[in-house]
Amino acid sequence: MKPAPFTYVAPQSIAGALGALGEDAKALAGGQSLVPLLNFRLARPETLVDLNAIDELAYVRKSGGTLRIGALTRQATLLRSSVVERGWPLLQRAAAQVAHPAIRNRGTVGGSVAHADPAAELPVALTALDARLHVRSAARGARAIAAADFFRAPLMTALEPDELLVEIEVRPLPDGARAAFVEHARTRGDFALAGAAVVRSGTDHAAIALLGAGPTPLLAPDAEHALCRGATPAEAARLAGAEIDGDFRRALATELVRRAIERATAA
Q: Is 230 exposed, middle or buried (0-12, 13-18, 19+ CB in 10 A)?
C-alpha cells in the first residue's frame, strides 16, 4: 500500500518545525515506525514534518555531570559514544538490543521515545534512569516531563499535537551504581517478548523497569524497595513479576528481572 496524500515540509530549524506541527501533522525522524504506519494508512497526517535537516537536534554531550541527548541523535551514536559508555552504560546495553545495525544507524533516540512502543528498549532504559524529556511548543513554550509520566498507553505519550520532543536529559547515576539490561525475543533483532532494565547502588538505590509487561514501561517499586532492604535477586524478581497478567509473561519477566539484578550486582 501507499500513504494517503500529505503535504511534505522539511524545516531547517526547531522554530520552523514547531511552526509546522499541529493537530493534523506528524514529525518524521528515522522513519522506521512512522513510514509503515503511513503505508498501511494507519496514520493519515495532512502534513509530514521531516526533521532530518535540523542539525541542532543531533548531539550527545555531558553538561554539569548530566547527559543530554538531542532527539535526532541516531541510536548507533549511543553505541559509539565514550561519554555514554563511561557514565550511562545502561543506554548502550539497551541500544545494542534494538533490531539490527541498519535500523540503529537510521533510527533516532527521540523517535523511539515519541513512538512509545511498549516493546521498545530505549523507553524502558530511560524510565529506569529517571530521565527527563524536554518538549517544546510554539504556543506554550518549553516543559520537562519525567519518563515515568511521559508514556501513557501503547503508541501514546504526554506530547500534545503541537509539541516536539527536543532533548533527553539523564542525571548522573548514584555513586557506585551498576546497571544491566536483559530481554528475550524469539529471534535476534525481533520485538522482545519481555525485558528488564536494572540500576543498582548497594542498599541506597535500586531502579527496575520492565519491558513488555504492560502498555507502557513499568517500574517495580516493591521490588526496588526490597532490594534496598537486602532481598535476594530471586525474591525481588518475584515481587516485580507478581502483578503481570498471564502465567507465561509473568514467569518470563520474573526470570529476566532476576538475571538483570544478578548482572547489575556482578558488573
A: exposed
Measured distance CA(237)–CA(180) in Å, rounded: 14
User: In this predicted model, what pLDDT tens digit does every residue of 15-52 receive, in sequence order?
Assistant: 999 999 999 999 999 998 999 999 999 999 999 999 99
Take residue 159 and report the three cell numbers written for it.
Answer: 506530547
Gyration radius of the chain over CA positions: 18
Q: Please give the Cα distance from 101 to 105 (Å, whole number).
A: 6
What letters, b where the CB count within 10 A reaches 16 and e where it falls short, cover 175-192?
eebbbbbbbbbeeeeeeb
Distance between CA atoms of residues 32 and 104, nearest Å = 10
